[in-house]
Design brief:
It is a single chain. By secondary structure, this protein is an alpha+beta fold. Helix content is 17%, strand content 35%. It is built from 1 helix and 6 strands; from the N terminus they run αββββββ.
Length: 106
């Protein structure tokens, strides 16, 4: 009985470790923004990656200010250089760091 308890504890620890896996930062160029499906696709050194966007995803400007538009922000366009903080599940974007706005006057 004691062995089963130890085994169950080890399994629980391994499972908990995968749930709380560290977020990672991914830099790349925006290829596609799908506001309907709440997904963005970026080109990285490791190839094209698509990430889910949810209500908890934060969109931040280069100075740290939060975007009110979220996935519909005008800086999130094809060709934009972004940094994505990816959740431990490797599918969901926790944070998208946007580039500076381009002057429309130039």
């Amino acid at each position: 009985m004691f062995r089963y308890s130890i085994a169950a504890a080890v399994v629980a620890l391994v499972f908990a470790a995968t749930l709380f896996a560290a977020d990672k930062e991914v830099k790349g160029t925006v290829i596609k923004v799908d506001a309907k499906e709440n997904k963005i696709t970026i080109k990285t050194e490791d190839g094209d990656k698509t990430y889910d966007i949810n209500e908890e995803t934060k969109f931040l400007g280069p100075k740290g200010g939060a975007s009110k538009e979220g996935i519909k922000d005008d800086r999130l366009v094809k060709g934009a250089e972004v940094t994505v903080l990816v959740a431990g599940n490797n599918k969901t974007a926790r944070e998208v760091r946007l580039p500076e706005r381009k002057d429309k006057d130039k």
